């Protein structure tokens, strides 16, 4: 009884699937889906390497400090970094005193209340605070940015495919819209309030080029601050903010794999030993 | 247990004897996974995956319990509480990556375990109950994994929950009320997150319970083997301990090496970047995809694109659930008396076709719902149903199997090409 019913059910599923297939194929041939500008002109991130790449990768602390400086002087005007606390910056090689000073002198103060009246107030940051956001809330952020919302950057390097390279490509990828694109897709002309960037999913980005000129940031360590250098440094910094435990993970992984390798070899030898003389 | 020559438990230490006389737990363990369980001597490495599945469940339960100590199941803070685990909890990053990748590796070993069963006919008499209980475990795993993926409350968590619970909305008449009842609201929100957390904590223990039944049912006829023929005598078996405990120990080592390589060096390779964006009900991701282990089923769901008597969405839901439900009937669909695919030339070809077919379905399920992926998944889904419901019953009737060896020992000795036992 099972088999005749199964046979009919099978025929039913196969028929409906093939019917869907034929219908879809006919529709595809008679009305091929229109190509879109995004489909034709979107680019994958550029090839770029970071010190943290690969199974033995470690952060370049000098570079992270430079990247932090770019974030502080450029990005932080609009983008929050709310998963990161000032105390975390010690990982970049800053001393306790330096971290304390960074927290205290941060451009935005930490929301608080007046201890006398209970009225909303702000106070200076401390190492225990998360880095304060530039805007009080989403409405304020949108109001200041032509209704676009600058996303939080804490996890950006993990929230996009090939995140570090993506951030670097986006920052260095602004360009004029190709004539080819306008010729084929006149409707896809970048609106006046947006900026063309082929590394952005829909090609048009509300953020104006944040790194516009060489020397925009004066690096404390004397590195020449070309746009390319700044983009790379801030990308490296954001890889760190997204995965601050990366070095610990790599180091632990090497030790764990070393242990497991030895244990597995021993397990194999004992397996061979126990089975010796038993054909199987 | 099942064979008269099985070793009998004889406690050596007086304490063990004292315990065994009052609560025969040592005896139970001895008979279940100790020297008291005779196992065919010719099992290959594909028989490691049952134990590895159990190990994966244990890893998930241990890491999960500790994660639950730090996680907060509340829509407002769930996402940040996961980041708190990643940044501020001691070794929290390791726990979370172990748990997230543990789910993937659990499915990898379970899929290999299932396909092992498919190839060697492990679902056939007298092991039907083992197969059926295994499928129950598989369904429970899928529910648990799905609800676990919702807990970080990222974009894919939220939209995945919305799509999957939306499947119930395809049921005629009562669909929408059921969906609302399941979610505790009209869209995934705090109520859904809380109940998913509660059930995600509960179901692994239900799985553990069904695993006990699975092993119990296995021990009645004893383990199958690559020849598929029955055990004839003591010369065909070895005691589970130390022979298979040693072999499983080695298998476990290899498993842990691969698992830890991913855990420590590519922990996000099997996840989706969008889940590092906090859930936002107002912003739909460009492509909503579930975790990779659901891709073949997701492809079947999306393969139905035309309303034919029933709405296309309802067809998709019926087919997706049907693709698993039909496996429950497999012991009665494939009536070939020969178990092992090694002795079934026609079955063997179709089996490998099925493996390729499921891989193709998986690839299409992870791709955007555009051509050519939709057409490919329609063909592949058609083969999937045809394989189990049409081809297997016919093949099992028509096929002329190769001659079977007389005994497991004979097959083993033939492989080694000499007569010395």
Automatic annotation (TrEMBL), chain A:
UniProt KW Plastid keyword: no
Every Cytochrome c domain range: 62-171
One MF term in the entry's GO annotations: heme binding
Cofactor note: Binds 1 heme c group covalently per subunit.
Pfam families, per database record: Cytochrom_C1 (PF02167)
Binding positions (heme c): 75, 78-79, 207
Cofactors, names only: heme c
TM helices/strands, residue ranges: 251-271
Keywords in alphabetical order: Heme, Iron, Membrane, Metal-binding, Transmembrane, Transmembrane helix
Keyword Metal-binding tagged: yes
Compartment(s) of residence: Membrane
InterPro entries reported in the protein's UniProt record: Cyt_c-like_dom (IPR009056), Cyt_c-like_dom_sf (IPR036909), Cyt_c1 (IPR002326)
Cellular component annotations (GO), alphabetically ordered: membrane
Protein name as it appears in the record: Cytochrome c1
TrEMBL record, chain B:
Positions annotated to bind heme b b566: 113, 214
Example GO biological process: respiratory electron transport chain
Transmembrane segments: 45-73, 94-114, 129-151, 163-187, 199-218, 249-266, 308-330, 350-369, 375-395
Predominant location category: membrane
Record flagged with keyword DNA-binding: no
Residue positions binding heme b b562: 99, 200
Limits of the Cytochrome b/b6 N-terminal region profile domain: 15-227
Free-text cofactor note: Binds 2 heme groups non-covalently.
Family from the record: Belongs to the cytochrome b family.
Name of the protein in question: Cytochrome b
Provenance organism: Rhizorhabdus histidinilytica
């Amino acid at each position: 009884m099972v088999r005749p019913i199964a046979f009919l059910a099978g025929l039913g599923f196969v028929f409906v699937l093939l019917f869907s297939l034929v219908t879809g194929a006919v529709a595809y041939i008679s009305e091929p889906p229109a190509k879109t500008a995004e489909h034709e002109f979107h680019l994958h991130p550029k090839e770029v390497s970071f010190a943290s790449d690969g199974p033995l990768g470690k952060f370049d602390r000098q570079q992270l400090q430079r990247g932090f400086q770019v974030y502080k002087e450029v990005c932080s005007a609009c983008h929050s970094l709310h998963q990161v606390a000032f105390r975390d910056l010690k990982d970049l090689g800053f001393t306790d005193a330096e971290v304390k000073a960074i927290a205290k002198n941060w451009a935005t103060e930490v929301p608080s209340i007046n201890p006398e009246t209970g009225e909303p107030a702000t106070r200076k940051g401390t190492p225990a605070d998360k880095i304060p956001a530039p805007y009080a809330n989403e409405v304020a952020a949108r109001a200041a940015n032509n209704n676009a919302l600058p996303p939080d950057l804490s996890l950006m390097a993990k929230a996009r495919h090939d995140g570090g390279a993506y951030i670097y490509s986006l920052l260095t990828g602004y360009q004029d819209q190709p004539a080819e694109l306008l010729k084929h897709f006149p409707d896809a002309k970048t609106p006046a309030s947006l900026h063309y960037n082929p590394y952005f999913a829909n090609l048009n980005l509300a953020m104006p080029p944040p790194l516009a000129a060489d020397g925009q940031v004066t690096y404390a360590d004397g590195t020449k601050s070309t746009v390319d250098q700044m983009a790379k440094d801030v990308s490296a910094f954001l890889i760190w903010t997204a995965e601050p435990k990366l070095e610990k993970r790599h180091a632990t992984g090497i030790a764990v794999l070393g242990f497991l390798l030895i244990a597995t070899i021993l397990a194999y030898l004992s397996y061979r030993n126990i089975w010796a003389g038993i054909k199987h | 247990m099942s064979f008269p020559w099985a070793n009998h438990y004889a406690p050596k230490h007086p304490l063990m004897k004292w315990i065994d006389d009052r609560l025969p737990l040592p005896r139970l363990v001895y008979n279940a996974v100790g020297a008291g369980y005779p196992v065919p001597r010719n099992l290959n490495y594909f028989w490691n995956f049952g134990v590895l599945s159990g190990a994966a469940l244990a890893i998930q339960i241990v890491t999960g319990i500790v994660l639950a100590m730090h996680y907060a199941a509340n829509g407002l803070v769930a996402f940040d509480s996961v980041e708190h685990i990643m940044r501020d909890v001691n070794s929290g990053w390791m726990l979370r990556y172990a748990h997230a990748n543990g789910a993937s590796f659990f499915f990898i070993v379970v899929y290999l375990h299932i396909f092992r069963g498919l190839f060697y006919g492990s679902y056939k008499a007298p092991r039907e109950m083992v197969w059926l209980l295994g499928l129950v475990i598989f369904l429970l795993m899928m529910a648990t994994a799905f609800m676990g993926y919702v807990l970080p409350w990222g974009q894919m968590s939220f939209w995945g929950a919305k799509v999957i619970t939306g499947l119930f909305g395809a049921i005629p008449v009562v669909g929408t009320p059921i969906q609302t009842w399941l979610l505790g609201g009209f869209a995934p929100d705090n109520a859904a997150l809380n109940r998913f957390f509660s059930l995600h904590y509960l179901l692994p223990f239900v799985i553990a319970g069904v695993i006990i039944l699975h092993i119990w049912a296995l021990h009645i006829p004893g383990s199958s083997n690559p020849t598929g023929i029955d055990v004839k005598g003591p010369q065909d078996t070895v005691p589970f301990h130390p022979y298979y405990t040693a072999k499983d120990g080695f298998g476990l080592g290899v498993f842990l090496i691969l698992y830890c390589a991913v855990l420590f060096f590519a922990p996000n390779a099997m996840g989706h970047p969008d889940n590092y964006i906090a859930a936002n009900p107002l912003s739909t991701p460009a492509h909503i995809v579930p975790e990779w282990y659901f891709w073949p089923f997701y492809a079947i769901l999306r393969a139905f694109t035309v309303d034919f008597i029933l709405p296309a969405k309802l067809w998709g839901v019926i087919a997706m659930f049907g693709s698993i439900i039909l496996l429950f009937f497999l012991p009665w669909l494939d009536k070939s008396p020969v178990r092992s695919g090694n002795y079934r030339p026609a079955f063997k070809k179709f089996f490998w076709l099925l493996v390729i077919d499921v891989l193709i379905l998986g690839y299409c399920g992870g791709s955007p719902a555009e051509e050519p992926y939709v057409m490919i998944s329609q063909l592949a889904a058609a083969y999937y149903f045809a394989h189990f419901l049409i081809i297997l019953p016919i093949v099992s009737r028509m096929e002329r199997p190769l001659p079977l060896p007389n005994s497991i020992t004979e097959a083993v000795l033939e492989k080694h090409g000499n007569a010395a036992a």
